[in-house]
Request: fold
Amino acid sequence: MKLIGMAFLAIFAFKMNVQAQTKVNDKAIISTPTVINDACKDRVEKALFKQYGIISYKVDVKKRTTTVAWITDRTDIEQIKTMIANAGFDAGDVAADPDVYKKLPPICKPAPVTATPPKP
Reply:
């Protein structure tokens, strides 16, 4: 009987310890305007997959946004934006790494916007 009581106490203590270590999760939608197709999407997802603490992510090419959920004691929004920028894409207020951007395939580089002069 004593052994069963000790086992129950150990299981209860372990469960309480696991619950105490669980930290708050956070979620954000990051503007990723330079993610223009599935090839770009794959590159961003590959970068986010490597980031420690990210629980889930979804890159929406049509809306040009990336939704990310993470564990707050393992990463934060700035690190996530930096990971996307280090993959060669703009992420909110963090600009893409210019050296990586140059190495992106042409399909992942949006066409430059040229202003057309007004017609007289």
